[in-house]
TrEMBL record, chain A:
It holds the Pfam family BPD_transp_2. The keyword Disulfide bond does not apply. GO terms for molecular function: transmembrane transporter activity. Belongs to the binding-protein-dependent transport system permease family. LivHM subfamily. CDD domains: TM_PBP1_LivH_like. It is a multi-pass membrane protein. InterPro entries: ABC_transp_permease, BCAA_transport_permease. This is Branched-chain amino acid ABC transporter permease. The lineage of its organism: Bacteria, Pseudomonadati, Pseudomonadota, Alphaproteobacteria, Rhodobacterales. It comes from Pseudooceanicola nanhaiensis. It is found in: Cell membrane. GO terms for cellular component: plasma membrane. Keywords: Amino-acid transport, Cell membrane, Membrane, Transmembrane, Transmembrane helix, Transport. GO terms for biological process: amino acid transport.
From TrEMBL, chain B:
InterPro entries: ABC_transp_permease, LivM-like. Keywords: Cell membrane, Membrane, Transmembrane, Transmembrane helix. GO terms for molecular function: branched-chain amino acid transmembrane transporter activity. It is a multi-pass membrane protein. This is Branched-chain amino acid ABC transporter permease. It comes from Pseudooceanicola nanhaiensis. It comes from the Bacteria. Pfam families: BPD_transp_2. GO terms for cellular component: plasma membrane. Coiled coil: none annotated. Its main location: membrane. The chain crosses the membrane at residues 36-66, 78-101, 107-128, 158-176, 206-232, 244-266, 278-298.
Length: 308, 311
């Protein structure tokens, strides 16, 4: 393949990663924005989403489509419920103190990860995609006789990957609409701006916190369900996803949803391109250092406008 | 003051005496616990006394381990020189990290240190040609000799670990009783007020981090030299979480806490790994339980209930 088709392939793979990252990082960003705590266990909720998707698809018969749709509905509900329960039993009791929350969610990370290892085992297991047609992509060649369209070997994507991109975009749009135009979104934004004042106006802040924590985890679980037909479900898959979503949320500015989405596209695309053309380990080293430096020299992120 | 000195010197003496009475398995375990407790002591200087919650101390531990290990692998410098180089590596890395990361505070500081540490762990994998990546490498027994004594021998290893532990332990006791130690506590409790009193808090925090990184590197180098192996898993996130866990369990901001925490956790994991492979579950449950019920740890509870003057 030439450089052009190669690049296009890299961009397509990058777009899938960007879509999943945007969804997952939105959850992290929502939790940080409203509750001002960093949820280190977020990656494990993503992993749980994938594992629950496998379990649901395994239990529900009737073809891959039925199992997948069931997983798409059930996994976020189950994971979100678990997260809300964890919020009420643990985080509420330590008063959402930022540092203690980090320590507690590190503990939660290991509990979830190790329980999954005990219950689900160390194997990686696939889930069949509901549909998976191969779509060959055309490329325009400028030959001697003018431009001509041809289909280079290897330049293709699947309908499922395109569906992941579309689904993630639709879900993110839905979150925006809910946040900006619904009663629930209004309550969340009020809690974010001033939780004491919100309490004074009769908003049940503790229930809002539990709900936000649950919704955040549910979004991670959705990302996990969407990715599992492409990548298999494995009990250690949360670690790298967590690091990437941290990177995205920091670059985008902690708590800014728009920034998060822009950063997800940026990171996903560049990860796709860099890992096609360069060594993936080197790419990760550079990306990690770059992010650390962004945080050092521009603590509010690239898009955040939060005062310090 | 005298009582506390008696307690700490007493612990050192008891550990020395244990060398002659312990059965072989426990003997090896305590040598390991003492080496790792040095790491916890180093972490405690940054976290317990100065309030710098770092999630990236594994990079200092690994800097010591690889600084010593690589030197011994590619040169014939000898164990003492390797240990010195390891300390320099840890202190240097801590200095660079601190100059950048200490511009941030709180949650950002944790994430920046986590990222730096991750970059170090990835760098170890990237230079697999020298470090052998995930697999790690064995530090040859011939190079692990100090003045004719073979560190691989159980007795020598125990005493070397004891010497390293005692040095770090008494050093931290000395440090926290000096004026600098008191100022570090002041920074932990209220940084703006410490600055108002005229202390250059940035430099003091940097100093604390460099000392902490150097002590952690000493532990890493010791672990590599005593047990003869260096591997990338020691640079992973898990090894940044461990000292946090040990210090929280034992009691952050106490001199004896890191040792107690390391000892308890080591045996907890040792016992539970006989029952299940998922031994990190214990670590997770312990972290949640500690934040919920005993944020002060063992020695912290002791200080609160029985002995207010415990350093």
């Amino acid at each position: 393949m030439d450089f052009g088709p190669h690049l296009m392939l890299a961009l397509l793979e990058g777009a899938v990663l960007a879509a999943v990252l945007a969804l997952m990082a939105s959850g992290l960003s929502l939790v940080f924005g409203v509750m001002r705590v960093v949820n280190v266990a977020h990656g494990e909720f993503y992993m749980l989403g994938a594992v629950v998707a496998w379990a649901v698809a395994d239990l529900v018969g009737g073809g891959p489509a039925v199992g997948f749709i069931a997983a798409l509905i059930l996994a976020p509900l189950i994971v979100g419920g678990l997260a809300a329960a964890a919020d009420m039993t643990i985080l509420k009791r330590i008063d959402y103190d930022p540092e203690r929350t980090i320590v507690a969610t590190i503990g939660l990370l290991y509990v979830i990860q190790q329980l999954t290892l005990m219950g689900y085992g160390p194997e990686a297991r696939p889930v069949a995609p509901p549909f998976n047609t191969r779509i060959a992509l055309p490329w325009i060649e400028w030959g001697a006789g003018g431009p001509s369209v041809y289909f280079p070997w290897g330049l293709s994507t699947t309908s499922y990957k395109l569906f992941v991109i579309g689904a993630a975009a639709a879900l993110i749009l839905a979150i925006r609409l809910v946040l900006l135009h619904s009663k629930a979104g209004l309550v969340m934004r009020a809690t974010q701006l001033d939780s004491e004042m919100a309490t004074a106006f009769g908003i049940p802040v503790e229930r809002v916190y539990a709900a936000v924590f649950g919704v955040g985890a549910g979004l991670a679980a959705l990302a996990g369900v969407l990715i599992v037909p492409i990548q298999q479900a494995h009990y250690l898959m949360g670690g790298e996803a967590l690091l990437l979503s941290f990177i995205v949320v920091i670059i985008g500015g902690l708590g800014s949803l728009t920034g998060t989405i822009v950063a997800a596209v940026l990171i996903g695309m560049s990860d796709g391109i860099i890992s096609v053309f360069f060594s993936p380990t080197l790419a990760k080293i550079l990306a990690t250092l770059l992010v650390a430096l962004v945080l050092v020299f521009r603590p509010q992120g690239l898009f955040g406008a939060r005062e310090r | 003051m005298r009582a506390s000195l008696a307690l700490h010197l007493g612990l050192v003496a008891v550990l020395f005496a244990l060398n002659f009475v312990l059965p072989a398995y426990a003997h090896g375990n305590i040598a390991r616990v003492m080496t790792l407790a040095v790491y916890a002591i180093g972490y405690n200087i940054a976290f317990g006394y100065t309030g710098l919650l770092s999630l990236g101390h594994a990079m200092f531990f690994a800097a010591g381990m690889y600084g010593a290990g690589l030197l011994l692998r590619f040169t014939d410098a000898g164990a003492v020189a390797a240990f010195g180089v390891a300390l320099a590596c840890g202190a240097g890395l801590a200095l660079v990290t601190g100059l950048l990361a200490l511009r941030t505070a709180g949650v950002s500081f944790m994430i920046v240190t986590l990222m730096f540490s991750q970059a170090c762990a990835l760098a170890i994998l990237y230079f697999a040609e020298y470090t052998r990546g995930d697999e790690g490498f064995v530090i040859a027994a011939a190079s692990r000799v100090v003045a004719g004594h073979d560190l691989g021998d159980a007795q020598v290893r125990y005493l070397a670990a004891w010497a390293l532990f005692s040095a770090a332990f008494l050093f931290s006791l000395w440090l926290v009783n000096r004026p600098m130690g008191k100022v570090l506590v002041a920074i932990r409790e209220n940084e703006p007020r410490a600055r108002l009193l005229g202390y250059d808090t940035f430099r003091l925090k940097l100093g604390a981090l460099v000392i902490s990184g150097m002590v952690s590197a000493a532990s890493g180098a010791g672990y590599g030299l005593f047990f003869g192996y260096a591997g990338a898993s020691f640079a992973g996130v898990q090894y940044s979480i461990f000292p946090l866990l040990w210090v929280l369990l034992g009691g952050a901001g106490t001199v004896i806490g890191p040792f107690l925490g390391t000892l308890f956790m080591f045996y907890l994991i040792d016992l539970s790994s006989g029952i299940t492979d998922a031994y990190m579950l214990i670590a997770g449950v312990a972290l949640i339980g500690l934040t919920l019920f005993a944020p002060q740890g063992i020695a912290g509870e002791l200080r609160r209930r029985a002995w207010r003057g415990l350093p």
